[in-house]
Design goal:
By secondary structure, the chain is mainly alpha-helical. It has a domain of 110 residues: Fumarate reductase/succinate dehydrogenase, transmembrane subunit (3 helical TM bundles of succinate and fumarate reductases, Up-down Bundle), CATH 1.20.1300. It has a two-stranded antiparallel ribbon with strand order 1-2. Helix 3 runs antiparallel to helix 4, helix 3 packs across helix 5 and helix 5 runs antiparallel to helix 6. The radius of gyration is 33 Å and the shape is elongated.
Length: 169
């Protein structure tokens, strides 16, 4: 029992929803206000945020974010080019040669260059996110983020060399 607190003021186990039946002041005033016509014409309007259509140009991280999202579009288009290439291989050698000749046009070469740049951007931003998404510990200490990022670059370089050896041999 609390000192200085009368016995009658002790907390009781009651349902808060049923207390409104016993005490008229706990009843919401909404039904009375509706009967009186108060507050029926108020409509909540959304807050008008003024933002330019070029919001992503304001800060460098926003630009990188938009470029990374745009890179997904180019990489998906490049996957489409590779799927068509696989279909041409299945159709025969003449269809394959015709498609490879078409891929050597200046327009396709520019597309390949842009797709390569976007793939590199995608890889670099992904590698930079690895230490934040996978914080490794060695004992009580965290592994340095530069070590994790460097390990990803080494793995990418090793796989690139392996693919080049397989393709060129």
């Amino acid at each position: 029992m609390q000192r200085g607190l009368p016995q009658a003021c002790r907390p009781r186990r009651r349902d808060p929803a049923s207390q409104s039946r016993e005490h008229s002041r706990l009843v919401p005033l909404v039904p009375r206000a509706v009967r009186a016509g108060i507050g029926t014409s108020i409509v909540a309007r959304p807050y008008p945020r003024e933002r330019s259509n070029a919001w992503f140009l304001e800060r460098w991280p926003y630009r990188v974010f938009v470029l990374r999202e745009l890179s997904a579009l180019f990489l998906a288009l490049y996957m489409g080019v590779l799927l068509v290439l696989a279909a041409r291989v299945h159709e025969g050698s003449s269809a394959f040669r015709d498609y490879v000749d078409a891929l050597q046009s200046p327009l396709y070469l520019a597309f390949h260059a842009v797709a390569l740049l976007f793939a590199l951007l995608h890889s670099v931003t992904w590698f930079q996110a690895v230490p934040k998404g996978l914080p490794l510990r060695r004992g009580e200490q965290r592994v340095a983020p530069a070590l994790l990022i460097g390990a990803n670059y080494v793995a990418m370089l090793a796989l690139t060399v392996l693919v080049l050896v397989v393709v060129l041999s």
